[in-house]
Amino acid sequence: MTLDGFVGGPNGEMDWMTMPWTDDVNAYVEGLLKNVDCMLLGRKLAQGFIPYWAGVADDKDNPEQSSGKYFTNLRKVVFSNSLDESPWADKNATLASGDLVEAVNRLKQEEGGDLYVCGGATFVSELIRHNLIDEYHLFINPVAIGKGLPIFDKLENRQNLKLLKSLSFQCGITVLNYVSDWD
Questions:
Q1: φ, ψ for residue 174, nearest 5 deg
Q2: What is the dihedral of CA 24, 137, 161, 98, to 10 degrees?
Q3: In what order do the strands lie in the sheet with 75-79?
Q4: Angle of helix 100-109 relative to helix 121-129, nearest 10 degrees?
Q5: Rounded CA gap, 155 and 179, in Å?
Q6: Which SS3 state, helix, strand or coil, does residue 25 take?
Q7: H or E stretch including 126?
Q8: Mapping DSSP to helix (H, G, I), strand (E, B) and coil, where does residue 47 land?
Q9: Residue 90 backbone class (left: φ over 0; alpha: ψ -120 to 50; beta: rest)
Q10: Dihedral (C-alpha) 73, 123, 18, 62: value to the nearest 10 degrees?
């Protein structure tokens, strides 16, 4: 996310992201993912995410091959109201459609580890609007872009959050870790 609250440029550009990440950011993300057994994705992001990581997993010369294998083997639920069947060969990717609140709450009730949301702005905005996110890890990049894709723009009521921690990393990124505060 940019300092001024956008997760993508006006057309979804990601060229503002601080890259490459330093080892301390990578370690933080690895810590987040260790308890995850299901990833929730919006259709738009999934269309690039799933084939990208499958290609990385299949490339023995890619330094991120272990991450590719992790994301390829991880259960993924892709939310879409426009797809009738999965266009991916990935057996671990399934489609969910219909009522978002019901579907996410069903997933939250399942046994297992954490659910991890990997957006798109439209999908994440809907999750936020319906108070379906229990914990936020907002990675704030040291850049302001003025215009772009927000994720908090669909809130109909104030949503109180409680700060658990904030950390700054060597590359200039700061993470803000909040939990939903329903009081």
A1: -120, 135
A2: -170
A3: 93-96, 75-79, 36-42, 114-118
A4: 80
A5: 16
A6: helix
A7: helix 121-129
A8: helix
A9: beta
A10: 20
**Is the distance from CB of 36 to CB of 116 less than 8 angstroms?**
yes
C-alpha torsion angle, residues 146, 149, 154, 158 (rounded to 10): -50
Residue written as tokens 């299901």? Answer: 38
User: What's the gap between Cα 72 and its chain centre?
Assistant: 15
CA distance to 17, 34, 142, 146, 148, per residue, from 9 (Å): 10, 30, 15, 9, 4
Identify any residues that bridge with 161 across adjacent strands, giving them in sequence order. 180
Distance CA 153, CA 167 (A): 25
CA distance 42 to 40: 7
106-160 per-position pLDDT tens digit: 999 999 999 999 878 999 999 999 999 999 999 999 999 999 999 999 998 899 9
- Computed over every residue of the chain, the mean pLDDT equals 93
What count of other Cβ atoms lies within 10 Å of the Cβ of residue 134? 11
Degrees, nearest 5: CA angle 95-45-13: 165
The pLDDT tens digits of the residues spanning 5-41 come to 999 999 989 999 999 899 999 999 999 999 999 999 9
Q: How far is CA 63 from the centre of its chain?
A: 22
12: which 2 tokens? 């979804």
